[in-house]
Amino acid sequence: MFSYILKRLLTAVPTLLIIITIAFFMMRIAPGGPFDQERQLPPEIEANILKAYDLDKPVYEQYFIYLGKLLQFDFGPSYKFRDFSVTELILSGLPASFQIGGLAILLATFIGIGLGTLAALYQNQKTDYAIMGVAMTGIAVPNFVAAPILSLVFGVYLAWLPVAGWGDGAARNLVLPVISLALPQIAYIARLTRGSMIEVLHSNYIRTARAKGIRERLVVIRHAIKGALLPVVSYLGPAVAAVTTGSVVIESIYDIPGVGRYFVNAALNRDYPLVMGVVIFYATLILIMNLIVDVVYSFLDPKLRVSG
Amino acid sequence: MNDNIILEVKNLNTRFDTPDGEVAAANEISFTLKKGESLGVVGESGSGKTQIFMALMGLLAKNGKTTGEAIFKGQNILGLPVTELNKVRGVSLSMIFQDPMTSLNPYLKVSRQMTEVLIEHQGMSQKEALEKSIEMLELVGIPEARKRVHMYPHEFSGGMRQRVMIAIALLCEPNLLIADEPTTALDVTIQAQILDLLHDLKDKLGMSIVMITHDLGVIASMCDHVMVMYGGRVVETGSVQALFSDAKHPYTRGLLQSMPRIDGDHNEDLYAIPGQPPNLQALPQGCAFQPRCQYATDLCQQERPPTTEFDAGRTASCHQLSSAFHTSSPVKKNPVHVVEGVL
Amino acid sequence: MSNIMNVNDKLATFNDNFSDSADLTEVVGRSLWQDARIRLMRNKAAVVSMIILSIITLMAIFAPWLSSHPFDEVYWDFIQVPPNVAEGFWFGTDENGRDLFVRTLYGARVSLMVGLVATTVSLVIGVVYGAVAGYMGGRIDNIMMRFVDILYSLPFMFFVIILMVIFGRNIYLIFVALGAVEWLTMARIVRGQTLAVKKKEFVEAAHASGVSTTKIIFRHIIPNILGPVIVYMTLTIPQVILTESFLSFLGLGVQEPLTSWGVLISEGAKVMESAPWMLAFPATFLAITLFCFNFIGDGLRDALDPKDR
Fold first, then answer.
1. Would the CB atoms of B280 and C5 count as touching at under 8 Å?
2. How far separated are the first and last CA of chain A, in Å rounded?
């Protein structure tokens, strides 16, 4: 078990290094320097600025300097927000992003599994069709469509909830962003759960459980759920990636001061260090999530637990 | 009602609704089984032999439905609501399946899969149930049962898993055990062990057994009575002795002839019934076996053969029972002990 | 469920491998593909989806002839007006006074084009990569698949965004970038199928008779893994369309005066309180298109791999 975690950790490190390297060199070959748009600076001042950002050194040297700084969680200074370092900006956006992202994942997991199980138990009946119809809607209506519509209906027309804004993380302000972010994931998880649940319910060992005369409720809860949830557990890694990506657009729509909104602004303003910082930060997050998911998975599957 | 009869099936029909039409899996099945007796059910894949008993256990796929009656210990168990059925299955009526590798829940320890039966049906405490489970594992010949009961199924070999399956089925000491090809997925040497075990347990616990198989050898070594199925219908029934020494139906005779024999002429090719097993969605008119039957006549193609009863429990359904093919029967020379030798 | 009898099951077992069409023929007397077509045609959602998609596609192709207004003409007298049949502004106009109907159809052109081209890119990469990995087997397979695993754990959307930031918002780049992102799952599917097909007798026979490896891959393996590939392709198209719209919505995709559904939705969302039609029409078109592709994909999967679900 321990050696398995160690092995996974060891593969995560090179992956992260690849990400950093790709991101770094992509940024360096980008046409145009960071200060091109601004008025012509006197050469000596420009040289000073370049020096301050280490841009006067050869690219490979810059790369190692960047790596060294990363080890100290220093993502360098932002080009756009001159008074802040990238690390400060990311940290300032973190609470909001974590709140809506975390809540969306929780919501999606519980509601998705619940709906999927229900649909599987009533396979090819009205309940199933209704749930799968809703799930299909969740997949076909992207969250950048759902978010404005939800905001229009519940914010403008019904005026139950704020149209947008963060309000220091008040519950009222969280509802719509979390729901818009969770909807597609609810849909995916519900479909996934339904599929694997149906497969498990048709498996030989469920037949055995029924032949033993165990109550149907126990057959589902004790015998079916565990096997059916394994694919869902392994989907949680990609789900985190999807929610992270989605938060970029949701934070922009609802005007939430999170990491995602910084990212969009940075991308539109060519604030390379900030873009890179966010990418590396999110990549690390997703890698860690995948690692956790793998470990949880190996705990749930007895075959892996023994041999791992 | 005869007290001695444990199971009486009357006119059972099983149908499956498929997108390509209805499939009649089992038709007009009737038979009785006495206490302590064992019945062998033989037939090719798709002959409907398994579906009859899946229907009894309430385990048919969702698109399947059953009509008829199955009186088990004085109660019709066909069409019982699940809650009622759960008072019977796993208690007085148990079933074991073909594939021991997938029939146990891979995510639960064997102990859990055993004790839950006793807790559910007999209200035992966890501790009592565990003790009884260990006893049962020892009974079916699992070494170090006390230790192994806490293992997961994948830590057992195929034969051991089938033993565990049998132990689970017997926990509540059922009156009838249905064994659906219990040895098909196992190595030959293990097969014999499992059959021996079932034989022993049958006598020890005084239960009846239904043995579903396509292997006549298994029937010969285990059963008192045989029911031969073809194309979703019973074509011949009788005692093992009678059926093996004097098969009436051409299909049964074909089956017997296609068995390898130790004392036979090894240069001779094994006999094979010509043609393909029938497609249940497009059964031929008349007798289902007629396209493969060398004795088939126009009558066979047009009308379904009637069932002729020779003795109590000795029947056959064939138009050609009285015709000439009987006299030159090669099967008569085929004594039962030879079949046992095959095992 | 060991229903030896249950025809559904029989089909399911046979179709676990799409290449087992020969076995299937014996049982049902129809080929796998005929069978699949019949099943697909029975699926009402899929059939309706195919009809709707055909209509949208035709409308996109013939967009310039369907409206009296050019897509980039600014009507100064009709700034942000609601749908107006008399003037031929069936969907109204946008905040620049351009006809929304024809712009929505031009958006359809971009979205469908991106969907098809990027999916084709992903298909080519995925199929070749997967087939090679599966066919070579052993260490090469191991290394190739480990590489895919690593790529899987990357936050790809962010890289696409970086690409867009660096190289400008160019539609050809979108094709390639999205195609390059979506090939991973395809590669996995193809590899799995290839491994299964590889062991089949007809491939061994080809090998034994001295046919070259490339020929075996292209002539024997690829045709046999078509089923799952088609299903996954159908499900990749909406994925790609969605991603393009996402980028365009953020302002990182298609640029003016060209438009796409993502751009239109983004513009509409900004003024949804005063001009809800600007959000409603492109959003509806996008959602319907995504619905249709997903229904067809599901339908195809059920038709080609009819497990009881």
1. yes
2. 5
Q: Residue C132 is part of a domain; what is its CATH number?
A: 1.10.3720.10
Q: pLDDT, tens digit, for every residue of C143-176?
A: 888 888 777 767 777 778 777 777 766 778 877 8
CB < 8 Å from C in window 268-307 of B = 276, 279-281
Contact of C64 with chain A, judged by CB distance below 8 Å, is answered with no
Residues of chain B in contact with residue A302, where contact means CB-CB under 8 angstroms, are 106-107, 152, 154
Q: Where are the domains of chain B?
A: 102-171
Average pLDDT, chain B: 84
If asked whether residues C165 and C79 sit together in one domain, one would say: yes
- Nearest-CA distance C58 → chain B (Å): 33
With contacts defined as CB-CB under 8 Å, which chain B residues touch A215?
Answer: 83, 86, 120
Q: Is there a single domain that holds both residue C23 and residue C57?
A: no
Mutual angle of helices A2-29 and A59-71, in 10-degree steps: 140
Q: Which domain holds residue C22?
A: 1-30
Which residue is it, tokens 């950790």? A9
Low-confidence winner among A29-43, B195-209, B247-261, C101-115 (lowest mean pLDDT): A29-43
pLDDT at C27 over 60: no
Task: Give the span between the Cα atoms of C265 and C272, in whole angstroms.
Answer: 10
Nearest chain A residue to C2 by CA distance is A204
Q: Please, where are the H alpha helices in chain C?
A: 7-15, 21-28, 32-42, 44-61, 63-66, 100-136, 138-152, 156-167, 171-198, 201-208, 213-215, 222-224, 226-249, 261-270, 276-304
Contact assignment for C42 to B276 by CB distance below 8 Å = no
Say if the Cβ atoms of C272 and A136 lie within 8 Å.
no
Q: Model confidence over A100-129: pLDDT tens digits? A: 999 999 999 999 999 999 999 998 889 999
Tokens of C28: 């049902």
Q: pTM higher than 0.90 for the full model?
A: no
Under-50 pLDDT residues of chain B: 1, 324, 327-343
Same domain, C16 and C81: no
Q: Which long-range contacts (CB under 8 A, 24 or more apart) does B273-280 make?
A: B276/C26, B277/B44, B277/B45, B277/B46, B277/B47, B278/B46, B278/B230, B278/B231, B279/C27, B279/C28, B280/B23, B280/B24, B280/B25, B280/B46, B280/B48, B280/B231, B280/B232, B280/C5, B280/C7
> Do C21 and C111 have their domain in common?
no
At residue C292 the predicted structure's pLDDT band, cuts being 50, 70 and 90, is very high
Among all chains, which residue has been given the structure tokens 């780049």?
C173
Kindly report, residue by residue over A267-276, the tens digit of the pLDDT. 877 787 888 8
pLDDT tens for A243-280 read 888 888 898 888 888 888 888 888 877 787 888 888 88
- CB–CB contact B57 A211 (8 Å): yes
Q: Which residues of A touch B91 (CB under 8 A)?
A: 213
* Chain C residues close to A253, C-beta within 8 Å: 269
Query: Do C162 and C60 share a structural domain?
Result: yes
Do C8 and C64 share a structural domain? no
Q: Determine the pLDDT at residue A85.
A: 84
pLDDT at C229 over 60: yes
Looking at the structure, do residues C242 and C289 belong to the same domain, yes or no? Answer: yes
Q: Which residue, B187, B279, B240, is CA-closest to B39?
A: B240
Residues 289 through 308 of chain A touching chain C, CB cutoff 8 Å: 290
Residues of A whose CB is below 8 A from C273: 152, 156
Of C159, C287, C308, the CB nearest to A202: C308
pLDDT digit string (tens) for A55-74? 777 778 888 888 888 888 78
Please count the residue pairs, one from chain A and one from chain B, whose beta carbons lie less than 8 angstroms apart.
85
Chains with 3+ CB–CB pairs under 8 A to C are A, B
Q: How many domains does chain C have?
A: 2
- Tell me what pLDDT residue A35 has: 56
B16, B99, B232 ranked by CB distance to C6: nearest: B16
